[in-house]
């Protein structure tokens, strides 16, 4: 019995000495470093590991990196971390996807309202630099119907500084008459180009096109012509070439 007990006592003594040595060594390392890893499986340890990214880790083997593309180099994920990620997938990545789509939508919305609240050059009389009747109607629409967070009046900047100043003063004067001096939104310059032709120019071009269609023309029935035949040559909607058919205008 003493023969068995002595080796066991010796093993226990050696284990105690090894534990004490490792504890002293760990304490010495802890005193020599600024931040030490928390105790394994402690609350602080779990809180630290839960901040690590998900997915495969990159490791080095035989001088090569596996996988070759950038991946985290932290310790492997814990089982609880893996289960949590797979159970709630695709969260939180869908939040980033939604935010990117919303950011793009908000940018498009802001650009759209910026264009809609701009008084382009065709809203002004080129001789007097005053707002035309369509320009005054558009200004009233901006003051009455534009959302509050987009309610601002932008005036297209022109090459002539004197003409631009006259237009700005006229816009401020008309806006004060429509909304009152105390209710004026910001009125600012904007460097921009008109996104389309003015309506009167588009109408003139279309009428000239219909009037110069070569013969023969396909006549429209009297009932189909209606009120749209308001100018010479507008009765038939011919095509772009002789004999070509087209829609009625």
Output the keywords.
mainly alpha, three-stranded parallel β-sheet, 249 residues, two-stranded antiparallel sheet
Can you walk me through this structure?
With 249 residues, the chain is mainly α. Among the domains are: 78-116; 117-190, no CATH class. 48% of the residues lie in helices and 6% in strands. The protein has eight helices and five strands, in the order H-H-E-E-H-H-E-H-E-H-E-H-H. The chain has helices spanning 2-32, 43-49, 79-87, 93-116, 133-145, 161-179, 199-211, 222-225; strands at 59-61, 64-66, 118-119, 153-156, 187-190. The strands form two sheets. It has a three-stranded parallel sheet with strand order 3-4-5. A two-stranded antiparallel ribbon has the order 1-2. Helix 5 (133-145) packs across helix 6. The radius of gyration is 39 Å and the shape is elongated. The termini are far apart. The model is unreliable at 22-34 and 227-249 (pLDDT under 50).
């Amino acid at each position: 019995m003493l023969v068995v007990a002595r080796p066991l006592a010796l093993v226990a003594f050696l284990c105690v000495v090894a534990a004490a040595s490792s504890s002293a060594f760990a304490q010495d390392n802890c005193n020599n470093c600024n931040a030490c890893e928390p105790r394994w499986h402690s609350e602080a340890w779990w809180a630290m590991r839960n901040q690590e990214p998900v997915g495969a880790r990159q490791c080095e083997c035989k001088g090569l990196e596996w996988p070759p593309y950038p991946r985290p180099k932290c310790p492997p994920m814990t089982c609880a971390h893996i289960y949590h990620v797979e159970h709630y997938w695709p969260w939180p990545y869908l939040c980033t996807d939604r935010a990117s789509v919303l950011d793009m939508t908000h940018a498009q919305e802001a650009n759209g309202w910026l264009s809609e609240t701009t008084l382009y050059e065709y809203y002004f009389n080129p001789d007097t630099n005053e707002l035309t009747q369509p320009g005054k109607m558009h200004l009233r629409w901006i003051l009455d119907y534009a959302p509050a967070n987009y309610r601002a009046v932008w005036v297209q900047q022109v090459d002539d500084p004197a003409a631009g100043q006259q237009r700005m003063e006229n816009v401020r004067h008309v806006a004060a008459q429509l909304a009152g001096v105390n209710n004026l939104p910001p009125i600012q310059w904007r460097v921009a180009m008109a996104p389309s032709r003015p309506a009167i120019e588009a109408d003139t071009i279309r009428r000239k096109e219909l009037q110069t269609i070569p013969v023969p023309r396909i006549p429209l029935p009297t009932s189909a012509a209606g009120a749209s035949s308001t100018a010479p040559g507008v009765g038939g909607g011919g095509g772009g070439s002789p004999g070509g058919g087209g829609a009625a205008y």
